[in-house]
User: Fold this.
Amino acid sequence: MISDNNIIDQTKKWISNVVIGLNFCPFAAKPTKQNSIVYLVENSLQIKDVLKTLILECNRLLENPSTETSFIILPNGFDTFLHYLDLIDLCEQLIEKEGLEGVFQIASFHPLYLFAGTPETDAANYTNRSPYPMLHILREDSLDKALEAYPDSSQIPEKNVLLAREKGLAFMKTLRNSSF
Assistant:
């Protein structure tokens, strides 16, 4: 069985190699360098436990403004992408119910991530294919500021898709798997 520390190390390596290395998120390098990211492993298979962890982590972010963002890594369960998408829907509903809509949003990453309308073999899916299913909690105010300061921020997803396709499926798969 892999330890929580190894899971976190693999996740950090994926962020470094893929997200920052290919500049899929031009805003990721700064909090990484500032060490203002929390990585948390939730081993439970129970949705209620994941939702509880999500709210606890949102509260921790509210109490610690120097922490920019958090990743809740889900190494057990949620292997099926559709099951994971159901979890994302529940997370978004909970954020709204708790009055945190507009404060936080969830970015989704999964080993089998699949953009709507794309085949499984489309290299573009690897822009969001992580080593483990995870919930990335983003501060909306930080995201808004970053997007305002970044030229053509609306083009980031399209540029990422084009780059991943240019690199090709084999390259993207190898790069993601180099985290393990």
About this structure: Residues 4-177 form one domain.
